[in-house]
């Protein structure tokens, strides 16, 4: 008798477990966090710089205050009264002309600053 009650209790739990929750059977939905894509007609200054080569940066900001090479990487630094821009360039996976993959901007005291504001302050007009 005890064995039958145990089986009934286990079967009841299995049924209840199958009914628990409001999610239908099958894969659960996944929430994907996506970074906003900049519209091509109105790119931000940082969006314009990433992917650029050194030639484009020098045309936009003038002669860099620092041009540092380390292995295949290159760092160009542009300075102004308002801020400092560091642009890091790496060659593409298959080789080729190094392009900007990352930028940092900071004020003269060394605190991070808004990329767009710094780029606008440094850009040749």
Termini Cα gap: 91 Å
Q: Can you tell me the CATH architecture of the domain at 45-122?
A: 2-Layer Sandwich
Tally of contiguous helical segments: 4
Report the average pLDDT across residues. 75
Number of strands: 4
Topology:
Elements lengths: L1 H18 L25 H5 L4 H8 L4 E5 L2 E7 L4 E7 L8 E8 L8 H8 L3
Task: Give a quick set of tags describing it.
4-stranded antiparallel sheet, alpha+beta, globular
Task: Give a brief outline of the structure.
With 125 residues, the chain is α+β, with helices and mostly antiparallel strands.
Folded structure, characterized:
The chain has a domain at 45-122: Beta-lactamase Inhibitory Protein, Chain:B, domain 1, CATH 3.30.1450. The protein is globular, with a radius of gyration of 28 Å. It has helices at 2-19, 45-49, 54-61, 115-122, and strands at residues 66-70, 73-79, 84-90, 99-106. The chain is of the alpha+beta class and 125 residues long. Strand 2 (73-79) and strand 3 (84-90) form a beta hairpin. It has a 4-stranded antiparallel beta sheet with strand order 1-2-3-4.
């Amino acid at each position: 008798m005890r064995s039958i009650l145990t089986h009934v209790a286990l079967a009841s739990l299995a049924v209840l477990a199958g009914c628990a929750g409001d999610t239908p059977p099958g894969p659960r939905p996944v929430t994907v966090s996506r970074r906003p894509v900049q519209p091509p007609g109105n790119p931000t200054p940082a969006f314009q710089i990433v992917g650029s080569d050194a030639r484009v940066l020098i045309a936009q900001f003038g002669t860099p205050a620092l041009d540092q090479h380390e292995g295949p990487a290159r760092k160009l630094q542009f300075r102004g009264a308002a801020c400092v821009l560091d642009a890091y360039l790496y060659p593409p996976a298959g080789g080729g002309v190094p392009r900007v993959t990352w930028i940092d901007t900071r004020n003269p005291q060394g605190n991070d600053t808004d990329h767009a504001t710094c780029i606008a302050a440094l850009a040749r007009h």
